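Standup notes, protein team

Yesterday: finished cleaning the Tauraco erythrolophus set.
Today: FAD-dependent oxidoreductase domain-containing protein 2 structure.
Blockers: none.

Input for FAD-dependent oxidoreductase domain-containing protein 2:
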Amino acid sequence: LALALHAGSLCAASGTAFLYHDYCIIGAGPSGLQAAYFLHRASRDYVVFERSHAPGSFFALYPRHRKLISINKQYTGKLNSEFNLRHDWNSLLSHDRRLLFRRYSRDFFPNADVMVRYLEDFASLLKLRVQYNTAIVHVTLERDARAWNGHYFLLTDQDRQNYKCSSLLVATGTWVPNVVNFPGSEHVEGYETVSINPEDFAGQTVLILGRGNSAFETAENILGVTNFIHMVSRSRVRLSWATHYVGDLRAINNGLLDTYQLKSLDGLLEGDLEDLAIIKDKKGKLHITLRFYLESRNTSADIDSITLPQDELDNFATRAPYDRVIRCLGWKFDFSIYNRSLRMMPGKGNKNKYPQIKPSYESRGTRGLFVLGTASHSVDFRKSAGGFIHGFRYTTRAVHRLLENRHHGVPWPSTVYPITQLTNSIIKRVNEASGLYQMFSVLADIILLREDATAFEYLEEYPVGVLPELEMQTGRKAPNGLFVIIMEYGRNFSGADKDVFYYNRAVGEAQHAWQSNFLHPVIYYYKRLPTEREMRLRPPDWPLPRPDAVHHIVEDFLTDWTAPNAHILPLRRFLENCLSTDLRNFFAESCFLFAFTRQKLPPFCRQGYVGMQGLLGSEELRRHAVEAGLLEDHTLTDFSGNRPPDSREGSEDQLLRDHVIPVRPLQHLVNAKDE
């Protein structure tokens, strides 16, 4: 009530009517709804502005041919819901089991209309506060020292209604078509308006500008009815199975590669689109030439008076005229609604279609302005899945946790475990966590060690790009060192020119785990939190600075890292070496023996046996331990010390062997007691 009265007084003082909310979200697409869900669950004051009459308006039009390329795997052979999200690329995160996408479609590549219906249900069933038919047309700042970030965000909609908020979450995606201007570009049709009826292209010759999924999707639709299709772009085609980036060309759309390589008239060309020019003849045919041929001529002159490339090079690749030229160059972020005071600047190079943001997804120019969803993809462009639902549903949750700590004093969620559970905790997460799996090299689990390594605190899916700021961003302390668990591909296994099907492309032995190519867990150990300088100077293509120790869990064909010898044992020994302790589990009999033979008990015995905790023994369990050679079968030993011939020799030696802590002879303790 006090906050509402304060906001009301501010609005009255300014003389302009403002509707105040703590959080304003622009866009009710998947990322906007995901952010609204987390704010709603936390009982925060928020509103979502959507320019259309329903959520997910982008999917009402795109993809034009209606087939999504995000997989919807119905069956994985497992019931673990977190694991199954690894292969569900369409569901948003929620507590409602009805809102799993597999309940809406059984298609492996669903129809986009299903996504629209799913997003409508997500907003309505969860009662998210979305204000439809509200197009935000201008955003600016109002400086105020009393505001959370030193300023308020002022928003104006198409009806000149004004809104004020303390934190702004931009979830508009990238929806402005990329357009290349060159002489004759007025003859080009856009992907957003071109016909999707194949019969409209029957018997025609088509040139497509672009080489992404939208270009190949368009080609796939008309492949069987055209004379031939040519496709031109400034860069070579990137296949997603080679780059391991889901935004590159997917197999579902690559039929034109077959017809090109098998010489069935279609073809691909590389060239700078800005160097092209298009001339239309009297018959309506479109001729491709180069810009420099027109520099000294009147571009409106008759085609017969204009020099074409084939006049000098009679086998010029695009010498045949085209009936249609289609632009399929993707989209970019809409910067037009943001006042200069917000300093929303485009990225550099191939990231110029996205706004500049920090690894925390906060704008580099304005504190309190966060970019979510596809528009935030500059953080992991061509590296991970942050531009797609199965990636940004996790980065959006990470942003919410950062905001909860910053503005409401709610620390990053964590769980404290005894150190004996360290190996198990890591193995559990790398085998089922979806956020780590989808946002590889971007989100990581953080293990903060307690004093004397007796316990640890586990934080899930933290953005590694802001690791040096962990204490400030999470409200957690890291004075005693930490482990960072992340998923990675091999350093030299991804790229447009890589052969990812070469013989012996995978390794299977633990000693060669560092050479793993396919996605696998990597554990970094730091004795202290890395600094920002170390983060900036990290080796090229490393997600993190150079650690004090690093361990690769060898890649696995089934992505099932539970093999005792190949996966768990090497991990446990790595952790033991980092912590200088013994992380094995022991039977009570072993702990009893260690109490008389060692100066320091292993953590499992200290926290379990000595604390009168542990697994309750039974005859069946004892018999199993004896058969496995883990315990002596004293019930079968006679008073003379003789044992049956089939008893396991050496089991006591195996029990007493320890490479970390020296064993004091039992006789020494007896003599000391006598003395």
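Follow-up from PR in the comments: The chain is about 25% helix and 15% strand.
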